[in-house]
TrEMBL record:
Residues 72-91 are annotated as: Disordered. This is AAA domain-containing protein. Transmembrane segments: none annotated. Residues 38-74 form the DNA2/NAM7 helicase helicase domain. It comes from the Bacteria.
Length: 221
């Protein structure tokens, strides 16, 4: 096996000569002229983060392409101004506006190992045509607490507020969790105390990252 992070003529020559059978690299290697037909199958990981133009640039590498990813996640980060549609990912073009892929065009992995059913139902209805379901063991995942933050569901608070007030609200919620004998049960049925390491705060503004309570993990997407 070889693993390249950048264009390397040696990488494609090793494949062409049969010295290795599996290779991993960025698009810089696979878009090179000497990468023509060196693979039987090219797997594009996180294809929802790779534009159609970039996938076409590497497609000469293999006879078959496998696009692997989730177009319902965040779009690829881009800089600059481009004509409408050019930033669309390869998977978006394959789906043609649908939320999930048709059976005759690909495979949709309909099980998640992360979310409790009430939370999964929300995401499934909103983004996956109600086709996404948790494995049965996810039903065990629940938060236990003497305070108000408990159970296994989504909660919301008003968001149209000044940044400083949002920071105070975030800190208040975190401290309420930490001071309420809060525990959680994982999908194996094991109960553990909730610590600051179990809590992640995602904020829309970079400035809010630095105005956090000590020990609380805060970051932007």
């Amino acid at each position: 096996m070889i693993w390249r992070r950048r264009r390397s003529p040696a990488g494609t020559s090793e494949l062409a000569s049969g010295q290795c059978h599996v290779a991993g690299a960025t698009g810089f290697l696979w878009s090179a002229a000497d990468a023509l037909d060196v693979l039987d199958v090219l797997v594009v990981d996180e294809a929802a983060q790779m534009s159609l133009a970039n996938v076409l640039a590497v497609s000469h590498t293999a006879r078959r392409l496998i696009l692997l990813g989730d177009p319902q996640q965040l779009d690829q980060p881009t800089q600059g101004t481009h004509p409408h549609g050019t930033g669309g990912s390869s998977l978006e073009h394959v789906l043609g506006g649908s939320q999930t892929i048709d059976p005759d065009r690909g495979l949709f992995f309909a099980e998640t190992w992360r979310m409790n059913p009430p939370i999964c139902d929300f995401d499934s209805e909103l983004f996956y045509d109600s086709k996404l379901h948790p494995v049965p063991s996810c039903e065990k995942q629940v938060v236990l607490s003497n305070g108000p933050i408990k159970g296994s569901r989504l909660r919301s608070s008003p968001s149209s507020m000044p940044a400083t007030r949002a920071i105070r609200l975030m800190t208040q919620i975190v401290m309420t969790i930490m001071n309420s004998n809060t525990r959680w049960i994982d999908r194996d049925g094991i109960e553990r105390p909730v610590t600051l390491d179990d809590i992640i705060v995602i904020t829309p503004r970079n400035a809010q990252v630095f105005e956090r309570h000590p020990g609380v993990r805060v970051g932007t997407v």
